[in-house]
Amino acid sequence: MFLVDTNVWLERLLDQERSDEVARFLERIPSDQLFITDFSLHSIGVIMTRLKQSEAFVHFVNDVFDYGAVRLIHLMPQDLKQVVEKTKQFHLDFDDAYQLAAAERHRLTLISFDSDFDRTEPKRKTPAEIQAG
Q1: pLDDT digit string (tens) for 18-42?
Q2: Residue 122 CB neighbour total at 10 angstroms
Q3: Cis-peptide, bond into residue 122, ω within 30° of zero
């Protein structure tokens, strides 16, 4: 089970350098094994609308939730203390600490291109490091 970080989704949505790697990951892993945080979903919405790609955002939401089985997760207010602790412990920005805390809380493997997670425990995995199964 995998928590897919914001940057992975955006890599594919914006057809960036590692978009094909993300596509292969999404083809290998059934969507019911994928999770996204509310924080990531809202961040993607902010970025896509800022880039004047609001229709692409609507298609993304339809693809992952209506046609796919990606699950949306969130942290409760009492979990935010853990987020703040992770910002200090691993010198992370709030958004990265949120992802890490959510992955731990829900016992998920974090999938990200963000090398900031390389100094955390557990470390992140890239889409290419994950095999189907």
Answers
A1: 999 999 999 999 999 999 999 999 9
A2: 11
A3: yes
